[in-house]
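Review form for a predicted model. The reviewer records the input and the model, then writes brief findings.
Reviewer: anonymous (R2)
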Amino acid sequence: MVITAILLLLLVSYLILFLFINHYVNSGQTNYVKQFQVDEPIAVVIAMRNEEDQILDCLHSLYQSAGLSRGLKVYLVDDQSTDASVIRVLSFIKENPHLNLELLNSNGIGKKRALIHALGRVSEPWCFLTDADCVVQPSTIKSLMQTAKREDKQVVYGPVSYDKGSFINSLMAYENLNNQLVGEALLEYGRPAMVNGANTLLSKSIIEDYIKAQKVEYASGDDVFFSQSLSRDEYAVSYNFESAVVTKSPESIVAFFYQRLRWASKYSGYSKLFYRLFPVLIFIQNFLFLIILSSWIISGLSVDGLLITLILKWIIEWSFHSFMFKKYNFKAGFYKSILISLLQPIHISLVGLFSLVNLSYKWKGRTVVNQSIVN
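Model under review:
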C-alpha cells in the first residue's frame, strides 16, 4: 500500500511538471518576420576554439541573414585553438574582403574570457551571441530583433536545435528538445534556469551587466549566470522555429554525457533558492524512476505495478511531446519516445551523481575538472 502511494505520488508530480511546461510553452506564439526590416547595425560575437569543421558554415550562414539593411559586424575571438580554425578563418577573410569580420585573439583562457574580450569592443547598438558550431537561419536575427522591438526588451532568447542526422543523433536531438521545452517554460515563468547562450540578442546598454555576471572560474555558464540575474520584465522569449539556430549533436554518447555533466556542474554557482531546488526535483523524480526501472528488470520483467508505472510515465511524456514538438517541425517518434523514456532516468541520475565528484573530462581539447580548466 505504501509503495502504491509512492508510485502514484511520483506520477502525479510528473504530470504536474508536464502540465506546467505545456502551459508556458503554449503561451509563446510563432514569430512572423517576412515583412520586418532591421535598420540598425548589429554586432555578432563568437568565441571559437577548435571548430575547424564548423566555423565556415557558421560564418556563411551569418552573412546570409535576411532583412538586415545595415549588415553585420562579426567579432570572432579565438580561444587559443590548436587546430586549423584560425587558418580557415583567415582564408575566409582573404576571400571575402567585403565582409565586416574582425578576428581577435583572446587575452585569457576559456570561453568567458574570450567573450568578455570581444564584448568590450562592441560599439553597435545590438549584439547577437552565437557559437562557432552553430548554423544561423536567414530569419533568426531578424526574428529576435522583431521580438526585441515589439516587446521593448534589451535581451531576447531564442532556441538551439540539434541536427538530427543518424538514429543516435536523432535521439540526442529528441532529448535536447525535451530539455529545451523545460527551459522555455522556465523562461516564460520568469525563472530562466536553463538558457543556451548560442542564440541570444543583447542591446549595447546591457552588455556591461552581461560581463559583470560572468563567473570566470567556471568553465561554462556565461549564458546561465547572466540570465539568472534578470527579472521577467527584463527579457523577451522568442522560442519558435523562425528564431532557431542549429548545431550538430555531440559526436558520441560519451561526448553527450560530458556535455551534460559540464552543464550540471554549474549547479554550485547558483545562488537563488529556486535555481538550487528545481534541479534537485528533476533529479529526485528521475532517480526514483531509475529505481523503478531497475526493480522491474530485477523482478524478471513481470507485468505488475512497476511496469504500469513505467508505461504511464511514457504516456505522459509522449502525449505532451507529440504536439509540443510540432512548433519545431520535430516528430516525436513512437519508438524513439520509448527509448528516451527508458534511458532518460539513467542519464539524468548518472549526470547528477557524477557532477558531485571531481571527474575529469576533455572539452575542446582541454581537461576540465568540476568546472575548472586544468590545461
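Findings: The first strand starts at residue 42 and ends at 48.
Further findings: The chain has twelve helices and 13 strands.
Recommendation: see findings above.
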